[in-house]
Amino acid sequence: MFLFQRRLYASFAPERPQDIKNILKPLGLVNLPKSTTEIKKKTFKEKKADFLDLEKNRARREELKNEFFKSSFEHIYNFRHTGGKIFHSPKHMFNKESSLYMPNIRGIRIDDNTKMSVPLFQLLSKTKPNIIKLFSSVAGKKQIDNYTTGLSSNEVNMIEINSPTSWMNRFLVKLFSGKIRKATDSKYLIAEEKLTPEIVEALYAFNDLAGYLYLVDGNAKIRWATSGPPSDEEKQKFQKFLKQLE
């Protein structure tokens, strides 16, 4: 089994690990997303047709298998290479005019025990700095939690978005939602769908194992961002820019 895993890993490992990216322009979407974003769910008739379409199912299985092995091993490979630092944080905060918009990710809110489906924009504050944490793994969350140690909900509006990468991961997160609720002081969303390539590109969230943090103003614009574990310099920048948003 071990030999099989090594061969499998070797067959999907990239030729060279990706370097840590530099942020040369503001992150986000050019246009303001709709505040009433809804997820269009398939009807029972559509689901049944998809289920009975053998050719479509066969093609989808192959696509998922290749995507799973390739993306999983690449993410592990690059996470180890960069230590989870997918991009270097900008040296300066983006100004209001050039800043772009945070995607309006929709998720199930579990921190208040309502389990309601809400868009991210509904949780943004107009009066407090918005800190948005995005992660798909425990390792990624732990890394970006180091930025916000000591901060409370009285000082900032903290929103955590757990973006599961598969239906199984989503099931497990929901299963342990009670424990998560007791352990968090933040507004907590479980993303209803996997992030689209457009959103991944806009947020530079290229690795599922890493954690990402965004400072967002009251107009839903991303003013600063970082990823992975913080250096002392990055912690200082974060504290400085956080105060500038107050």
From TrEMBL:
GO biological process, one term: mitochondrial proton-transporting ATP synthase complex assembly
Cellular component aspect of the GO annotation: mitochondrial inner membrane
One Pfam short name: ATP-synt_10
Domain of life where this protein originates: Eukaryota
Name of the protein: Atp10 protein
Organism: Starmerella bacillaris (Yeast)
